[in-house]
Design brief:
Belongs to the glutaminase family. InterPro entries: Beta-lactam/transpept-like (IPR012338), Glutaminase (IPR015868). With 309 residues, this protein is an alpha+beta fold. The protein has two domains: 146 residues, DD-peptidase/beta-lactamase superfamily (Beta-lactamase); 134 residues, 3-Layer(aba) Sandwich (Beta-lactamase). The chain is 46% helix and 11% strand. The chain is built from 14 helices and eight strands. The strands form two sheets. A five-stranded antiparallel sheet has the order 2-1-8-7-6, with helices on both faces. Helix 6 crosses helix 10. The relative contact order is 0.19. It binds glutamine. The site of glutamine has 11 residues, from loops.
């Protein structure tokens, strides 16, 4: 087994020295003003050991990484009937694309593109006020991470709301096909707030543990989801977690991963580790440029892969 403590330190040092860091998201001021020099890394291994380096305790906007936790929550509510309203195929299109929705009758390709995440948010809203639905998701994430300090960044939520015209279009379009059950503005409110959850790498890696432990909170702990559901969420992360760069991520890293436009990535080595990286500069697909590179190096050194013997 590689020396993980040393590995995280080496990678943090190596990444810190790279000048070409990608471009931070500019669509809202709270993201546009982030220093691209940040880098955080945290690896929680299967034995519970936590290895962290760099800005591992600095909260950042998890954005689309929240789609993993929201999906887990929605599956807990309605199980496999979710798949009548959202597909399970890679889209091959950017995260906020609308093109497939017309041809495919308002059924989004998968739960990790924005359209699919809006359907998931609509499910999580059922039977609740938006405030209660988002509170439920926040409590779930706090439980998974074992950390009650995790919070929503209201500034980010407000900025999402003020600028999210494409998401408004996606929600209205799906509403026209009958694939949203609530008024679009309520579903959008839940979605914008889930994107605005702020977490550190340490909190994110802790929250991802159930996906390395086959659905258990920790080995021997409470069950969050069944082993089959954990496997399936991992499968969706691998095939759809990086939008139209999901194939490239699988090729380079070989692990299920979910990115966010805040520069965070949660990656899972099933049975081995839950890994969170944060580097705010993005590549042309809206995924963390150096975060992906860091994960590629981690996979190379440790041999963690879902494609190995
Ligand atoms: N890829 C992302 O992280 C996208 C999230 C962003 N808030 C959006 O909805 O456009």
């Amino acid at each position: 087994m590689a020396d993980i403590a040393r590995l995280v330190r080496d990678i943090a040092d190596e990444i810190a020295a790279i000048p070409e860091r990608g471009d931070v998201a500019t669509y809202i001021p709270p993201l546009a003003t982030i220093d691209p020099g940040h880098f955080g890394l945290c690896i929680v291994t299967v034995d519970g050991a936590v290895h962290a380096a760099g800005d591992t305790d600095e909260p950042f906007s998890i954005q689309s990484v929240s789609k993993v936790f929201a999906l887990t929550q929605a599956l807990g509510k309605i199980g496999d009937t979710l798949w009548r309203r959202v597909g399970r195929e890679p889209s091959g299109t950017p995260f906020n694309s609308i093109v497939q929705l017309e041809r495919e009758q308002g059924i989004p390709r998968n739960p990790f593109i924005n359209a699919g995440a809006l359907v998931v948010a609509d499910v999580n809203l059922s039977g609740h006020e938006p405030r209660v639905a988002i509170g439920e998701l926040l409590r779930f994430v706090r439980y998974l991470a074992d950390d009650d300090t995790i919070a929503i960044d209201e500034k980010v939520a407000r900025a999402e709301q003020a600028t999210g015209f494409r998401n408004v279009a996606l929600a209205n379009y799906m509403k026209a096909f009958g694939n949203l059950t609530h008024p679009p503005e309520l579903t959008l409110g839940v979605y914008f707030h889930q994107c605005a959850i702020a977490m550190s790498c340490r909190q994110l890696a802790m929250a991802g543990r159930y996906l390395m432990h086959g659905g258990l909170y920790e080995p021997g702990g409470a069950r969050v989801v069944s082993p089959q559901r954990a496997r399936r969420i991992n499968a969706l992360m691998l095939t759809c977690g990086h939008y139209d760069a999901s194939g490239d991520f699988a090729f380079r890293v070989g692990l299920p991963g979910k990115s966010g436009v805040g520069g965070g990535i949660l990656a899972i080595a099933p049975g081995q580790a839950s890994i969170a990286v944060w580097s705010p500069g993005l590549n042309e697909n809206g995924n963390s440029k150096l975060g992906t590179l860091a994960l590629e190096k981690i996979a190379e050194v440790t041999g963690w892969s879902v494609f190995d013997r």
